[in-house]
Description:
14 strands, 2 domains
Amino acid sequence: MKLLITGATGFLGSWLVKKMVSHGHDIAILKRSFSNTYRIKKYLYKIRSYDIDKCCLEQPFREYGKFDAIIHTATVYGRGEENVREVFAANIQFPLSLLDIAASSGTDTFINTDTFINTDNLRHKYLFSYSLSKKQFLEWGRQFASRKKIRFINIKLEHMYGPQDDKSKFCTHIIKSCLANVPALQLTLGEQKRDFIYVEDVVSAYKILVDQVPKHLDYFQEYELGTGKSVSIRTFVEMAHMLTKSTTHLNFGALPYREHEFMDSYANSEKLQQMGWEPITRLADGISKIINEKNLKNDDDDKSGFRRSINYPG
C-alpha cells in the first residue's frame, strides 16, 4: 500500500514510519529540509522524502502517483514561541492544502490525528490556538467527506507517551527530572485525570485502520484512541518517582490549576476494539521503557534546560 506520512520526523510520525515500513508498505514522507531525522535515520534509505520548504505539495503526487492513504501527524502546539500565524499555517493551511491536493489526485483516505483537547466549548485557554485550529481543520475534513471527495478518518488521541518523545513533554519531563534527582518539582494537586496510552499501542491502532482502508465505506469516520481508563496526574508522577528511585521532592499543590482545567479525560475505544484492537502496555511498563531509554539521563539536545514547574500534561 502507498502511504504518505506527515510529521514523520516527530514522535508519533517516526513510530508510524517504522511500523509501516516493517509491514512492507511503500512510504513517502513530508518534512522540512532542516528537520532532525535522528528518529528515523535507520529507515531513510527505505522511504522517499520530500522537503516541503523546497518543493511544492503536488510533487509527491506527480512522482509517486496515487496514494492509498495519507496519515497526517504534523502539528504545532503553540506552547513555545510559535505565534498564531504559525499555528494557523501548520494546523489548518498546510493540511487543508494537502487534503485538497489528495482529493484531486484520487487518494482514497486521509487519516487525521486529532486531540482530546478538541472539545465543543473550547473554554480551556491553555493551548487555545492549537485546539481551535484542530477543531477548524476537522470541520474542513467533514466538508470534504460530505461531498464524497475523499474519505476522512479522524482520530481523537488521548495522552500518548513513550520513548523518543520531546524532552519538554509532560511524561518525559517528569521522568527525566526524577532520574536527574532535581531538588524539587512544583506541581498542582494532580487530581486531574488523563488516559495515558503508550505509543506502540497507538501505532497498532493506526495499523488496523490502514489495513481497513480498502474496506472503508463511510466517508467520515471518527475514533477515540486511548486505553479507556483515566489515571490521575499524581498517580503517574508518583509511579515515575518510585520506578526511578528518585530523591526529588514532589511538591503537590504548589501550583494552581489552569482556568477551566480538564479534570478527567478518557477514550471510548469500543469502535476500535470491535476491529480487533486492544491496548496491551501497562502504565508501569510504559514508564519503565522510557526510564531505560538510551541517553535519557544525559542527552545533549536539551541545551536550554527544562522546566521545573508542571501544572498541565501538555
